Amino acid sequence: MNLSHGRPFMALPGPSVIPDAVLQAMHRPAPDIYAPDLKELADSLIPDLCYVAQTDGSVAIYISNGHGVWEAALANTLAAGDTVLVPVTGAFGHGWADMATGLGIRTQIIDHGRTSPIDPEKVRAALLADTGQQIKAVLAVHVDTSTSVRSDIAQLRAVLDDVGHPALLMADCIASLACDEFHMDTYGADLMVAGCQKGLMVPPGLGFVFFNARAAEQRKSLPCVSRYWDWSPRIDAEMLYQYFGGTAPTHHLYGLRTALDMIRAEGLEAIWARHRTLAQAIWAAAEHWGQDGAFKLNIADPSVRSHAVTSAHLAPPDAHRLRDWCTREAGVSLGVGLGMSTPEDPNASGSFRLGHMGHVNTPMILGVIGTVETGLAALGIAHQSGGVSAAAKVLAAQ
Ligand SMILES: *Cc1c(COP(=O)(O)O)cnc(C)c1O
Questions:
Q1: The CA-based dihedral angle spanning residues 242, 246, 247, 250, taken in that order and rounded to the nearest 10 degrees
Q2: pLDDT, tens digit, for every residue of 172-204?
Q3: Cα of 16 to ligand 1 centre, how many Å?
Q4: Distance 144 CA to ligand 1 centre (A)
Q5: Collapsing DSSP states into helix, strand and coil, what is residue 321?
Q6: Across residues 25-37, what is the average pLDDT?
Q7: Which residues contact residue 285 at a Cβ distance below 8 angstroms, ignoring those fewer than 6 apart?
Q8: How far is the CA of 175 from the centre of ligand 1 (A)?
Q9: Are the beta carbons of 58 and 237 closer than 8 angstroms?
């Protein structure tokens, strides 16, 4: 019997579930891009985006995915031949470094493997060794969506200040914004990139670069910046097209307006607490299952786990079998393992990820936990049953 016919649930670490209100806001005929109301709508997004990032700085909006704002961040602050320090904690750190390489920027990578957050002491050592201050920026991924590890951005600021190194601190919050607690200004990030399709609950298509006065100064020191990526016209837009370097992403603006209204209404503190609690329920279930069998969370220390995504392991190829079963038999899609290939398991068939970012609540998370437990049982994968009850206990105690 197939029980998948109902509302499908994409438990993916992006794109995340789109709220009906966001979809409904986008469902409209093409608007007049020359009428004043669309410019006013775009203007209205800026303070709310800055609230979500917890910054008094600026934000430039791009019609792009996360990769686009990786490039935008670099294109506005660095030139070919410059050096960046990249403490890498998973596939996305490598991705940002690779984007820099493509722009002729030298990368100094500190590889932390697949199970650890950024070690501030390793960053300190690299900065101290850089006596000629060649390093122009530190590129740090807040939550690496492949490993689900969360690094402490404020600690990196403290190290930069301590060493007296002038490099810019840039954070990738594409997975974590509006999920995991983040305060751009008090954590001391000079620049931060995000996308709209994870915690912001909008279909993929908008990217954001937040930056402070120090980053803006560095932009001014560059002899030239690609016209399209240049953030200067985008932050002083007098006309709608200037925000976007061309035609506005009309329908995304309505969707984002509604998503930001929802975020304002719930409040960031409550949003962070909701993500934390739902993540703790998932961890409780996973740790319970793992008492018998191979089920294991990728990050052992709960204090450095993301609250937006969870990376987990089974004996290969059981993660692939489980994902396949959940999609086909139950209507729940789980994320593939990313950056988890090994010589023994070249297709990462022993790894998968659960996305729990954005528009998710108790029945959705209990539903996905229950579905995973059902799949484990149906496939005969060894586990200690009772994970759902373990999760329910966590939720009941809130
Ligand atoms: C999703 C993600 C990206 C890439 O975003 P795309 O929209 O797929 O280009 C980069 N960094 C992190 C941390 C992400 O989660």
A1: -50
A2: 999 999 999 999 999 999 999 999 999 999 999
A3: 12
A4: 9
A5: helix
A6: 96
A7: 369, 372, 373, 387, 388, 390, 391
A8: 7
A9: no
CA-to-CA distance for 367 and 380, rounded, in angstroms? 20
Structure-block tokens of residue 370: 């229950």
pLDDT category of residue 378 using cuts at 50, 70 and 90: very high
Binned at pLDDT 50, 70 and 90, residue 165 comes out as very high
Measured in Å, residue 352 CA sits from the centre of ligand 1 at: 17
Q: Which residue, by CA, sits nearest to atom 6 of ligand 1?
A: 66
Give the residues across from 165 on adjacent strands: none
- As a residue count, the chain comes to 398
Torsion sign across C-alpha atoms 267, 276, 201, 189: positive
Backbone angles phi, psi at 215, to 5 degrees: -65, -40
Pocket-forming residues, ligand 1, beta carbon under 6 Å: 14, 65-67, 92, 141, 143-145, 172, 174-175, 195, 204
Query: What are 227-251's pLDDT values in tens digits?
Result: 999 999 999 999 999 999 999 999 9
Atom of ligand 1 at shortest range from CA of 309: 15
Structure tokens at 120: 């501030």
For the CA of 143, the nearest atom of ligand 1: 13
Q: What residue type is 242 in one-letter code?
A: Q
Are 388 and 374 a contacting pair, CB within 8 Å? no
